[in-house]
Amino acid sequence: MNILITGISGFVGSYLAEYLSEKFSDASIFGTIRWRSRTENLVALNGKIKLIECDLKDFSSVKLALEQSKPDYIFHLAAQSYVASSFHAPQDTLITNLTSELNIFEACRALKMFPIVQIAGSSEEYGLVYETELPIKEENALRPLSPYAVSKVGQDMLGFQYFKSYKLPIIRTRAFNHSGPRRGYVFVESNFSKQVAEMEKGIVPPVLKVGNLSAIRDYTDVRDIVKAYWLAAEKGEPGEVYNICSGKGYAISAIVEMLQKLSEVKIAIESDLSRMRPSDVPVLIGDCSKFKSRTGWSPEIRFEKTLEDILNYWRERVPERISTKTSVS
Ligand code: GDD
What we know:
CATH superfamily of the largest domain: NAD(P)-binding Rossmann-like Domain
Largest sheet: 7 strands, parallel
Bound molecules: guanosine-5'-diphosphate-alpha-D-mannose
Radius of gyration: 20 Å
Structural class: alpha/beta
CATH architecture of the largest domain: 3-Layer(aba) Sandwich
Order of helices and strands: EHEEHEHHEHEEHEEEHEEHEHH
Number of domains: 2
Strand order of the largest sheet: 3-2-1-4-5-6-11
C-alpha cells in the first residue's frame, strides 16, 4: 500500500505519518515537502517515510510526485491554515489552497489514477452559525467569514465536483479545531500556552496578551483526529462529507482559565487589539454522528489533557532567561 501525505512536515501531517507508519509497517509512506519546509516534526519518522520535494502550486511538480509515489491513498493536508493571516493575504490563501488541490485532481486525471483522496476541510466553512443550528450538522448552510474559510468551501466544493464529474474517489472531512503538542504557536491555545511558559521562565511579564475571548470552539486532540482521517479514507463513502469533532464547546476565556490553573505564576490578562479579526466566527460546536455511525470513531483524549500536553511542550522548548548582567573577572 502506498500512501501520500501532502503537508507531512506540518502539525497534523507529522502525526498522521506516525500513526500510519505504526499501523501499517509494510506501507510505503510518501510526503511532499517544499525546499524550505522545516522538518523538526519528522524526527521520529527518520527512515520510515520518503520525502518528495514538491510545490503543490506547480502542476508538473504534483504530477511528478504522483508518478513517484503511485498512491493508493492521498491525504491532502497541506494548506495555508491560519485564519488571521488570510485577512492580510487573501489572494495567497485562495491561490495556495485551491490551486494545490486542483493540481492533485488534475494530476490524477492526467495519469489515470484513482487513489482515495481525503480532503481536509474545516468547520470554518460553516462560519456564521445561529444558536438554533447548534450542534452543526453537515447539511448546515455554509456562511464563511474569512478568506481562509472561503478557500476551504472552495476546496470542499471542488472535491464534490471532481467526484461527480470524473468519479475520483474523494472523501471530504470537516474537522473542527484540533490541537496538541507541535501545534503552531500562532493558534490560540498554543499561543497562550507558549506565553505562559515564557512567563514561568521570566522571559516576559506575567501578562497574557489576548484577542477575542468570547468565541467558542469545539476541540479534539490531533492524535484522535489522525485516526479519524484514516477511518474516513478507509470507511468513508466517496463523494460524502463528514464532520469530525468532539461535540463539546469551549469559550476561549475558558482556555485562559484552564491555563491560569496550570500555570506556576499568577497571570493577568491584557486585551491586544492586533489580535482581533475583521470578523470572527462566534461559535462552532459540531455534530459528528454521521461520521461516528459510519466508522465507529470516537475521540478519546480530553481537551484538559491536550492543553496540559501543549503547555508541557512549550515548557520544554522555551529557553531559560538569558541573564543581561555581564560578569567581570
Ligand atoms: N490565534 C489567536 N490568537 N486567536 C485568538 C487569540 C490570539 O491571541 N485571542 C483570541 N483568539 C480567538 C480567535 O479570534 C478565534 O475566535 C479563536 O480564538 C480561535 O482562533 P485560532 O486558534 O486562530 O483558530 P481558528 O478557530 O480561527 O482556526 C483553526 O481551526 C479551524 C477549524 O475550525 C485553524 O486550525 C484552522 O486551520 C481550522 O480550519
